[in-house]
Amino acid sequence: MNEPTIIIEEVLGRAQQGVTEPFICRGNDGAIYFVKGKGAGRRSQICEWVAAQLATGFGLPIAEYALAEVAIELIEAGVFPNISQLGSGIVFASRELPHPQELTAITRNLVSNELASDVLIFDWWLHNEDRYLTERGGNPNLLWDMQASELVVIDHNQAFDRNFDAVNFLSSHVFSRQWNGIFGDHLERERYQARLVALLPKLVDIRATIPDSWWYVDDGVPADITWGEIESCIERCRREDFWNTP
Fold it and tell me: Could you give the percent of the chain with pLDDT greater than 70?
């Protein structure tokens, strides 16, 4: 059921951070959303949507998200520079937090070991290398809710990375320090794999919710991703070599 639940009524601006530079929009529910449309790339939209649903199932505190609809009239009105990069049709929308701050080396220490481990293993599972933070800085693509004092997970547009580098992941991931404790504990590895395998039955329904239009670029050109490669990455959790490192 790949129908939008939010209608985009107003384009307010554009984020300056991030490769995709999402549009900042107001929905018909009055909330503000960071919206990734056609200009973000079909691969990006698909990765965001699939990973977001798996993150929900895995229990990560991900920012609220939805499929949203952008009317062609809004694009044709040219109400914002380069609005054509938003594009009409179904888009991915992530709801704005009221008191966000990018996670830093200081607030990272406020995240519980269990949640830090969950984020690390989830990213390992989905080959998401785009969550780095070292003593020299970085971009963890994680937020800290100042009011609630809680971690909020965002941005999975680079999940299912074909060029995933395990060495770089383990040296630069924001929560890489959790790895040895998990990898060295046979029971912990089994526990995590059981949690991941339990999500596999959701794949059929997740596949059905991906908008048909996202599988194609203009003029019927296929998107730079297939369901087969997504499924292959996700189903690695069944294999004995899931934990293998170089």
Answer: 99
Give the C-alpha separation, 129 to 147, whole Å. Answer: 28
Tell whether pTM > 0.90: yes
* Structure confidence by residue, pLDDT tens digits, 47-69: 999 999 999 999 999 999 999 99
Q: Please spell the DSSP secondary structure of the chain, one letter per residue.
A: ----SEEEEEEEEE-SSSSS-PEEEEETTS-EEEEE-GGG-HHHHHHHHHHHHHHHHHT--BPPEEEEEE-HHHHHTT-STTGGGT-SEEEEEEEPPSSEEE--TTGGGGS-HHHHHHHHHHHHHTT----EEETTEEE--EEEETTTTEEEE---TT-S-TT--HHHHHHHBTTGGGHHHHHT-HHHHHHHHHHHHTTGGGHHHHHHHS-GGGGB-GGGPBPS--HHHHHHHHGGGGSGGGG---
* pLDDT (tens digit per residue) in 190-238: 999 999 999 999 999 999 999 999 999 987 899 999 999 999 999 999 9
Amino acid at 198: A
pLDDT band, residue 1 (cuts 50/70/90): low
Distances (CA, A) of 239 to 190, 196, 232, 242: 11, 11, 11, 5
Q: How far apart are CA 183 and CA 189, in angstroms?
A: 6
Which of 105, 82, 228, 109 minimizes the C-alpha distance to 172?
A: 105
- The whole-angstrom separation of Cα 38 and Cα 221 is 13
179 or 134: whose pLDDT is higher?
Answer: 179
Task: Quote the CA–CA distance of 11 and 93 in Å, as a whole number.
Answer: 12
